[in-house]
Amino acid sequence: MKNVLHVSSECYPAAKAGGMGDVVGALPAYLPEHDILASVVIPKYKIKWFLDKIFTTIYEGTFPIGDQKQSFTVQKLTSTGMPFPFYCIDLPGLFDRDSIYLAENGQGFKDEPKRNIAFQTAVMEWLIVRYEKFDIVHVHDHMMGLIPFFMKFCPKYKKLKNNPSILSIHNGSYRGQFVWNEVKSFLPEIADSDLGVLDWDGQINSLATAIKCAWAIITVSPAYMLELVRDSDTLSPLYATELNKCQGILNGIDSKNWDPRSDTYLSEHLKSYKKEDWITFKAANKALLQEKYKLKKDRPLIGFIGRFAFQKGADLLADAIRAGLASKMKFNAFILGSGDKELEQKVMHLSNAFPGVVGTEIAYNEQLARLVYAGCDFLIMPSRFEPCGLNQLYSMRYGTVPIASHVGGLKDTVIDVINGGQGIVINTLDQNGLMNGISRAIKLFKDKKKFLKLIHTITQLDYSWNNSASLYAKLYSKYLN
Ligand code: GLC
Asked: What mean pLDDT, rounded, does the chain reach?
């Protein structure tokens, strides 16, 4: 079997901040059936999951960074907890913190450039002694974007010069940009003539570097690939130049972990895929959510789960909910998320202004998220851009109809019921567009027969990794031969 190493900053259930964690924690488990053994390496954080796991140190090393020496150990998980070989790298002083990206004040860690380069250097240090073990190095997002460059251009790592590297882009709006003179001393030795490869717009740009150096560039949906080429501000010309190695592969979901019949986060499970069991399942979970947040009964419940970031459009949603309720539209909303502090305030005010109608929990909470997928009638995603979006896939698996904007992966997965599809598409992403989507949802909910039929249809769709894993296997084999 050929070996692929996934290098990432997140891997569910060890460390997850968003969908990338889900993908890295699921895809590798689906590859062995396609003759690929995939392993994962991430930094060792001081977060809960790691505490009761057993790791064996398999490699120890040090490397210079700035005028200091950084020690590190590569550790392999030897207890249960991951369905594939899982490694983490312990970098004392840099990653042994209780959060993945953010300091207590909600801002990124101040030493982010150093941390970031140190982890990628540690991966390289380990790979040059174990380079025969992995046939392909697959890196995720800008955080790991320097690795394809280090493999190609660092004299110290020249053993890896001809090893293929692949970049997955989960979010192309984050670039990992560093100011040259603040960061140059952290980099491993590189010939002056090669330094320019790291540069884009006068800065070190980790994403641009990876786009130039990786053998293949994957976006997490086909539609998002086209959007990046068309509209990535100063990076668009780079995507256009590298187009022949770019491809979109739609994410899947881990249908074993996300199973309404056995989800360990839920207390009310689906008995079977029969229509009447879906009714019972949805009603029981909706009741739990209504009770917990004291929401009125007999109204359609529209959920939102996500980071309060520009991308996800929660600001638009809060305004649309307020305007809709003010104009006497009859629905309940439940918002689960956290992020931008102003937006958190805005959502809390909204919930206080409409008691019994708008419930909210300002948190990142996996358990509650599962109840929202299971208990809502609709899940709304007013994303301004969405590389793939997994929430619409999770929601459909749990019998919840998506209301989604027409961008990126949402375009690939949510077709409007008007066009024979399985959701409600928000065509104009503004307050009126959202209110229109909500009003169509209310109407659909009232037509019980049609609504039930739709639930039945969406729960039959297969968005598991089975399909996409075979596309990855095909991609890998192209570079292995
Ligand atoms: C990021 C993107 C999201 C995608 C996920 C997994 O979180 O914003 O659209 O589904 O990565 O690839």
From this structure: 96
Nearest by Cα to 113 from 194, 52, 186: 186
Question: What is the SS3 assignment for 263-322?
Answer: CCCCCCCCCCCCHHHHHHHHHHHHHHHHHHCCCCCCCCEEEEEEEECHHHCHHHHHHHHH
Mutate which of 219, 390, 395, 405 for ligand 1 pocket (most atoms within 8 A of beta carbon): 390
Q: Which is it for the CA torsion 97, 99, 104, 105, positive or negative?
A: positive
Residue 131 pLDDT > 80, yes or no?
Answer: no
pLDDT digits (tens, 9 = 90+) for 410-458: 999 999 999 999 999 999 999 999 999 999 999 999 999 999 999 999 9
**CATH for the stretch 275-463:** 3.40.50.2000
Distances (CA, A) of 190 to 193, 322, 337: 8, 55, 42
Note whether 2-254+466-480 and 275-463 share their fold. Answer: yes
Ligand 1 pocket mutation, candidates 27, 101, 143, 171, criterion most atoms within 8 A of CB: 171
- The Cα–Cα gap between 162 and 466 comes to 30
Structural domain boundaries of the chain?
A: 2-254+466-480, 275-463
pLDDT above 90: residue 132: no
Tokens of 66: 């700035």
- What per-residue confidence (pLDDT) applies to 438? 98
Q: Is the pLDDT of residue 190 over 90?
A: yes
pTM reported for the whole predicted model: 0.94
Residue 454 Ramachandran class (φ > 0 left, ψ -120 to 50 alpha, else beta)? alpha
Class assignment of domain 2-254+466-480? alpha beta
